[in-house]
Amino acid sequence: MVITTTSTARSRSAALLALIVLALPATAWAQDAADFGKLVGFVRLGGVLISIVIVLGSMVVLRVIEDVAARASSEFATYRPTIQKVESATRFAVYIATTAICMGFSIRLDPTALTVIGGALAFAIGFAMRDLVAAFIAGITIMFDRPFQVGDRVAYAGEYGDVIKIGLRSVQINTLDHNIVTVPNNKILTDVTSSGNYGELEMQVAMDFFIGIDQDARRAAEIIKEACLTSPYVFLDRPVPVLAKQVILHDFVAVALKARPYVFDVRYEKPFETDVHFRVLEAFREAGIAPPAIIHRSVMSST
To answer: How far apart are the first and last CA of the chain?
Structure first.
């Protein structure tokens, strides 16, 4: 009798365990279904249809704005930059208004929905602003570390020009072609930036000259130094060294002469370089100093 009761109890326990195992997937499915039902409860189907119509209408409005701006720019060419600014601001306003109206029609804004939307927006904004935050922190670092200053002539990422603004988000460089290049601060901290004058007006301007291997290199160096010293753009408080070395230039053996004078103001770097080159070319022509060329030597054989 005891054996029978024990066997019955074991059978009931096994059956109960089997029912629990079978009920687990059903419970998980029921929970997912409930969550999906809550999500669907936030959405208004009628509002979704209205939102589709609003989006189509906003696309038409944007196309009209683009056409009107194009016609106005062609007719009033003087005001084209202003017209383009107004067009960009209007397009941005249409985007924001369309998004807000569609959300208002399509979503039931009860406290639960606001909590969900607020969390999603906070995550999206935080993810999108990570580069902005990094640039902001890098801007503070630049303010204290001072790798360059406003007015410095710098070389960065293939761009070369004057720093005209150092902000908390970016640095603006005015290139020698008068293009305004905006560089995020976090990019500057991770790459190499070269400053030519570092807060000073004067700056060294390296110039390269090449002459034939059989030419008078000492006379050529004197001519180059004299051309630098007599230029109206030279900064005379600094020395003007001229360095020489033998090089292979396009399969020619040549003498490379490098002058390192200073210009008194970085703004006159290119005029200084142009003036010195014109002076050197004219003096080389008068002195008979020739550029690199192939040298033919005759070998005398003894008989």
So the answer is: 136
Q: Which amino acid is at 18?
A: A
Contacts of 173 (CB under 8 A, 6+ apart): 154, 156, 159, 161, 162, 163, 164, 180, 181, 182, 183
pTM confidence score:
0.66
* Eight-state DSSP code of residue 267: G
Do the Cβ atoms of 164 and 152 come closer than 8 Å? no
SS3 state of residue 277: helix
Question: According to the model, what pLDDT value does residue 267 have?
Answer: 92
Taking the C-alpha atoms of residue 188 and residue 201, their distance in angstroms, rounded to an integer, is 23
**What is the pLDDT at residue 212?**
94
Q: Who's near 140: CB < 8 A, 6+ residues apart?
A: 168
Token pair in block for residue 14: 């096994």
DSSP of 63-80: HHHHHHHHHHHHH-GGGH
- Tally of CA atoms within 13 A in the half-sphere of 52 that contains its CB: 5
Lowest mean pLDDT among 1-5, 77-81, 117-121, 250-254: 1-5
**Which residue is associated with the tokens 């249409």?**
94
Residue with tokens 């003894």: 302
DSSP H/E element including 11: helix 2-42
Report yes or no: 215 and 290 within 8 Å, Cβ to Cβ.
Answer: yes
For 208, residues 6+ apart whose C-beta sits below 8 A from its C-beta are 256, 257, 258
Q: What's the CA gap between 196 and 234, in Å, rounded?
A: 16
Interatomic CA distance for residues 75 and 222, integer angstroms? 60
